[in-house]
Structures are given as structure tokens and as C-alpha cells.
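User: Working on a comparison across species. This one is SGNH hydrolase-type esterase domain-containing protein from Notodromas monacha. Can you predict its structure so I can line it up against the others?
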Amino acid sequence: MDHHQQHPKLVTWPKVVLFGDSLTQYSMNPNHGWATILAHSLQRRCDVIVRGFSGYNTIDARHLLPRIANTFDGPVAAVVIFLGTNDAADAVQNVRQHVPLEEYRKNLAWMVKFMQDKGVPREKIILMSPPAADVKKWTRNDRSLAQTEAYARVCEEVAHGANISSINLCKLMQDKFKN
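Assistant: Here's the predicted structure for SGNH hydrolase-type esterase domain-containing protein from Notodromas monacha:
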């Protein structure tokens, strides 16, 4: 039988799921988005699924996650949880987005457990901390580098406690741009 006459076997690509706030939502910018670069480098190997929600903090994300749970069905190569930038906003200047540090910790831990309960192995879950706040370029007065560093440390602590990988983007950016 000719191979063109046979029913082709369907291919299910493993997926990399990016879950986060506006830094994830806008990461698909075709000119310079980090998810676009990732998708390009993983083409024909993985699908990159972006679930980014502008303005969200970990409270919002925690309520949303069960509603998008089917995103994690099928083969998963990696899940990146990239939240904390809005949580780290000043409690007085930005009441809507700020999440107290210990609540941020609990929310991240809950999300990691949720992913594991959905069948995502711990070695495929990555927590990414908020990036360093560039307060000189930020037009609102609701961010600080010290506050962001505290949230980045908690992100690492949650990852360490769950025995999963983490990326301290805040520290990496500071190390890169020290000069």
C-alpha cells in the first residue's frame, strides 16, 4: 500500500505553556517579544502557548487557573509561571494590584500544586520571578527595586521548597546591567 493512501498518524506536539501577567501577554510581540523568540527557537519541536493576562496578580491568576486548566492537558514540555510584578506594587500607591508578600508565597505554592495535580511533573514547572524594576523609567510611583527583590526571593524560596526550577529574573537583570 502506498504511504499516501494510509491514514497518517496524528502528531501531538509537546507544549511549553507561559502563564503570567502583561509581561507574558505582550511577549508575543512579533518584533521583540520573548515568547516569539522562544517559539521561533522551538519550532517543529514544541508549541508555545501564551496565557498572559495584563494587570493580573497572583490572586487574579489563582482564580483564573482552574478555568484554563485544559491548557495543561496533553504532553507538556514545560510550564513557566511568571507572576509577581503586579503583586510587588506599592500597597498604598497601587491597592488594586498589590498582594502582601506572604499571600504571594501561598498563591505561588498553590499554583505549583495545581499544576502537579493536573499531571505536570515537578521537573517541568519553572517559576520566574518579577524582573528588576527600573524606577527611573517607570512613570508611576508604585514600584521599587527593593520591593521587587523581596518578591523575587520569595519566588525562589517557593521553587526551592517545591523542588522545582526557578529563574530569578530580577537578579539576572541587575547582574547584566550593573554598569
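For your comparison, note: The CA atoms of residues 11 and 46 lie 11 Å apart.

User: Helpful, thanks.
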